[in-house]
Design brief:
The chain is built from three helices and no strands. It has one domain. By secondary structure, the protein is mostly helical. The two termini are 16 Å apart. Helix 1 runs antiparallel to helix 3.
Length: 63
């Protein structure tokens, strides 16, 4: 249930944000900007997803 609801939603949001940034003129002129954005967003997504999973595991009694 956690993967279907939380992870999929976050994955879709991250991909949408990456598409917006990659289509921007700044990212086309300075590709490291797009790369830095992608790394930052994916890192933040992993951290937030981990925190959500721990909260969900505690709430459901798995931990």
């Amino acid at each position: 249930v956690f993967l279907a609801v939380s992870s999929n939603t976050r994955y879709q949001i991250v991909n949408g944000l990456e598409r917006l940034v990659e289509a921007s003129p700044l990212a086309r002129q300075v590709p490291p900007v797009a790369l830095a954005f992608t790394v930052g967003v994916r890192f933040a997504n992993n951290v937030y997803g981990g925190m959500q999973f721990v909260d969900w595991a505690r709430w459901s009694g798995c931990q």
